[in-house]
Automatic annotation (TrEMBL):
Protein name: DUF2961 domain-containing protein
PROSITE patterns in alphabetical order: PROKAR_LIPOPROTEIN (PS51257)
Species assigned in the record: Tangfeifania diversioriginum
Source organism, top-level taxon: Bacteria
Amino acid sequence: MNRTFLLIGLIASLLFSSCNKEKVTLNSLLSEMTDREVLTRLPEKPYTLKQFSSYDRQSTTPGEEGWWANADFTQFIREEENSGRREFVLFDAEGPGAVVRWWMTFAGEGAADGTVRIYLDNKQEPVIEGDILKLLSGEMLAKEPLAASVSHETEYGQRGHNLYLPLPYASQCKITYECDAVEITDEGRRPSIYYNICYRTYEKGVEVESISPEVVQQNRELIDATGRFLLAGYSAPDQKELSGEKALAPGESLTLNFEGSDKAVSYLSAALESENLPQALRSTVLSISFDGEETVWIPVGEFFGTGYQVNPSNTWYTKVTENGNMESYWLMPFKENVEIKFTNYGEETVNVKAAADLESYKWSNTSLYFGAAWKEHYQINTAKDPDLDNHKWHFDVNYVDLKGHGLYVGDALTVFNTADAWWGEGDEKIFVDGEEFPSFIGTGTEDYYGYAWCRPEKFTHPFIAQPTGAGNFHPGMTVNMRYRTLDAIPFQSEISSNIELWHWAKTTINFAMSSFWYARPGVETNAEINVESVKNPVALDRSAIYPPVVDEDGMIEGEHLELALTPTGTAGMQGGDFGWSGDSQLWWRHGKTNDELLTRFILEEDGRYRISARLTQAPDYGIIQLYLDGRPLGQKFNGYFSEGVRAVEVDLGSRVINEGEHILTVKIVGADANAKPGNMAGIDWVKFE
């Protein structure tokens, strides 16, 4: 028998033995977490979902000064003295309710060396008390994945800590943190303590059994079984009710149809083959119509959580294998018929092999259609105004706006970064049912997606994943996913899900956003179908966005030169306010003497050119010689400067140059006797007049 079904049987027997359907309990919430049908219906016990976080309290009014403030740490509701202890209040809410997702990270001496206390139902003594990390990602209450830190490849002190074990409370909940290291003055706050805590509030009259050590112990076997079930996930059925395979020429589709009542799509898989697989994963679109209403339109790679390259992951709702097979376990009900379509909007033939399975489902007046949408900000400038200083250039971008009645159940980002700088400082901002201030305002993109400190290491978890983080610190692609179960966000009339585009560099990137929901028939969305957007060439390297072409003014920025060979050390874009044009340069560091860095550029017109460059000097820069197509340009340049960093314009002579591709070489020929170790070199720009 399949291990998944063994676990389902164990969980079902445990629930049956102790479940009280009239009351919200730890038991009932764990059942809800692992029951995919729950999200397909309006909540049986209506609730609102909101969040407490350490967001910067200067963020008060959308679009006004302070809205993009970034000191999102060590911000608490208040400070209290309890039995002689100094406790900082992270969370304080009236019930009945339940904490359903709790994330934290820490930095600075003593930040994580504190005690957390959970006070319930206005009692003076805490119900739960102990080491903060043991609670969130240790085994005080639960094992992985209900209590987990990510990524396991990341140094422990730089991980995000996630508690998904629900903490129900009957009438009130307060969470405090006692930490002797905390200092809050007019000059600043330290150390750095970040948190996001999502919680449900049920309607008055809903009976809730509060969490306690005794309740946890009584449900220990169920807690452990739930964790194993989440990690095991679902398996592909042996027999699929619908299947098809077709070589799709540009514009062609493969369609899977089913007509019949009391059914739901329970499994969907796809595998693509193409000479240009990355482009096929973006330009092949999955669209699904339920009872004639199309609610899904999204590139195949984005739907399954792999971006536009094969990045393995295994979550509660999606799975991608090393060989490129992609699976989905979203439960998608319909009344009478469903049409699943794969359409090739690209320029090359794509072979699509797809399959779907269905299971019994009783449609009712509370049932919801599944929806998914996608939009990309293609080659978007990260600075609203590139001339603004002090990071006042940021702006909010939208996942989706929905008008209707339903549940928001997840979102994902596929980002191609072009700078040696973090792209995701931005906070989520989610407005529910027309509120003026968002129910959800967080502390950073990576925090929203469950990890921390912009770390690039991969991880996969039932509800959060980073299949690749290659673009977090350097040019490259990053994929982040967050799926919701107990933290699904109900909306009665509308929801607007947004996040700040807050990059540390003024650059141009690709920023693709996917969103997932369940809603009543007739929901309206602002995510318009944009065929042209899925046809855009995907970026596999920085030159796809910044081609190494000398512009019409005869200029090429150093950071736009395409790297062809870096024998030692590292080379790439460096940002900073050192007088460089565009606040960035090409930076080569820790190269060895006599090594050569080769870069490529394209000149579009023959001619005799006078060549100049602006090169960087600093205390740890070496002596370099530039070459054009193997011939020396100008004189040797001593990059040493004792008083800091500065950019110096140098004349490199004149040369007859043909139209086409050329190689500019940087050779380290030595170091000034006074220079510090580093052997660095920097090019702000090169000019051809």
